[in-house]
Amino acid sequence: MAKLDIITLPDPKLRLVSAPVERVDDDLRRFLDDMLETMYEAPGIGLAAIQVGEPRRVVTIDVSGRDDEARKPLFLINPEILSSSDDRSIYEEGCLSIPDYYAEVERPASVRVRYLDRDGKLNELEAEGLLATCIQHEVDHLDGKLFIDYLSRLKRDMVVRKFVKAAKSGVKPEFKPHQREEM
Question: Active site annotated at which positions (predicted)?
Answer without folding.
Answer: 138
